[in-house]
Amino acid sequence: MGLNKKNLHCRRPLGDPNPAVANLALAVVLLIVIGIQAFFNAWQDYSTGRVMASIFGMLPTDILVTREGNTFKSVPDAPPQLRHR
């Protein structure tokens, strides 16, 4: 089954010459479901980012750290997900 002119023909659609209308309806429904899932995925990602940013906003700007009997102030780093926002 090498590449020749006969194998490069476009195939006829399923059900040719009279394709079923149900196939088109199912394709449209499938595209709608994929679109709705994409929207909810984007909305959830956006909401999660906002919640994480608000939680990070509640963290203290500096903290007191005691190491080997010495107390000093330290500035905590932002998590990698929030550093560029």
What can you tell me about this protein's structure?
With 85 residues, this protein is of the alpha+beta class. It has a domain at 21-76. The chain contains one helix and two strands. It has one helix spanning 21-57; strands spanning 63-67, 70-74. It has a two-stranded antiparallel ribbon. Strand 1 (63-67) and strand 2 (70-74) form a beta hairpin. The model has no long low-confidence stretch (mean pLDDT 80).
Rounded to an integer in angstroms, the radius of gyration calculated over CA atoms is 29 Å
Low-confidence sequence ranges:
none
- Helix content bin: 40-55%
> How much of the polypeptide forms β-strand, as a percent range?
5-15%
Coarse shape: elongated
Distance between the ends:
54 Å
* Major sheet attributes: 2 strands, antiparallel
Structural class, from helix and strand content?
Answer: alpha+beta
In the sheet with the most strands, the strands line up as 1-2
Question: What is the mean pLDDT?
Answer: 80
Total helical segments? 1
Count of DSSP E strands?
2
Query: What string, H for helix and E for strand, traces the elements in order?
Result: HEE
